[in-house]
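Figure caption, in words: inputs first, then the predicted bound structure.
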Amino acid sequence: MISKRISSLSPYKTETTPAKIKLSSNELSIDFPEELRKRIGEELARLPFNRYPDPEAYRLKEAIAQRFGVKPENIMLGNGSDELIYYLSIAIGEFDRGVFYPVPTFSMYGISAHVLGRKRIEVRLKEDFDIDLEKSLRKTREEKPALAYYAYPNNPTGNCFKEDSIRVIRSEGVFTVLDEAYYHYSGKTFLEEALSREDTVVLRTLSKIGMAGLRVGILIGKEELVKELNKIRLPFNITYPSQVIARLMLTEFYPFIEEAVKEVIRERERVFIELSSMEGIKAYPSEANFILFKSPIPAELLHEGLVRKGVLIRNFSYMEGLENCLRVSIGKPEENDAFLQALYEVLKEHT
Ligand SMILES: *Cc1c(COP(=O)(O)O)cnc(C)c1O
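Bound structure (pyridoxal-5'-phosphate present):
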C-alpha cells in the first residue's frame, strides 16, 4: 500500500539520546528569561483557543518584516523552514525536472525531493567544502534541474559557498533557494536578490535563535512569487501560541536575542581556537552556531565517550566526505567548557 518512494526512505535523523549537556541540534542554549515567561503566560491566557488562528499570521509577519527590512507581502511563513522546503519542492518546476544541491548538506532537500518522486541531483563539495563549479555546471546542463538548494552557511560544514558559483549555476535557468537558517551568525545574505528576482528566494528560521520549539520558518521573495507559493500553504500552519510568542520575542524582547547571538559568536571563536590546539583534531572554520571537526580516533568511539560524560553532540561520519567528522553546537560558556574538557579526557583515554 505504501509507495516504493516512501518505503525506501530513511527517516529524518536527529539525536534523541538524553544528555545533561545537549549540543547536538544547533539550538540556542539560552532559554527565555523569567520576565518574558510571565508575559507569555498573560498573553496566552487571553487567546481564544476555540477559534482558528489568523490564517495569515499577519501581526507576526509584520514583526518579522520590520526585523528583516522587508514588507509583510514579501513573506510566507511555514511550520519551520522544513515545511517551506517541502512547499518549494512541490511548487517549483514540473516534477520530471530534478532538484539540485551540493552534498554533504542538510538532509531535508533530498528527503522532500525523494518523497515527491523528483530526481535528486547531488554534486560533492570540494575538499575545502566549497562548490565544485565545473562539475556542478556539467550536471546542471545534463540534468536541467528546476531548482537548487544551498544552505548558506552550509550545515554541517559551517562555511558559506562562493556567491558567484551560486549565481553562475542560477544563470543556467535554475530557481535558487538560499537557506539562511544561520543568517544571524554569518551576517551574509542574498536578501536583495530575493527581493528583486523571480528566480531566487531566501529561507530564514527562528529555530536557531532561541525559538526552535515554536516552529516558525520564513520565506522571503518577490510579492508576486510569494502570492503564488501561498496557494499551496496548508491553512493555519502557524499555531496561535507560536504567533503570539514569536511576535513578543521579535519586538519587546529582541535585545535578549541579540545579546545571546553575540555571545554564541564570541564562544564560537574561542571553541574553534581550543579545538584547533588539541592534538590530532582538525576543526573547520564556521560562520554558523556550530563547528564541524575531524576526530583522530573513530568518531563512534568519541561520540559514545562524550555521551558517557553527559555531553551529546552529532556524529556525521556516516555522510560521504565526512569520515570521522562530528558537529558540536555552540552553547553557553560553561557548556562549551564541559564539552572541551570531556573531549580532552576521551581522547586521552584512547591514545
Ligand atoms: C536547522 C535547519 C533548518 C530547519 O529549520 P526549521 O525552521 O527548524 O525547520 C533548515 N535548514 C538548515 C540548513 C538547518 O540547519
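The chain has a mean pLDDT of 96.
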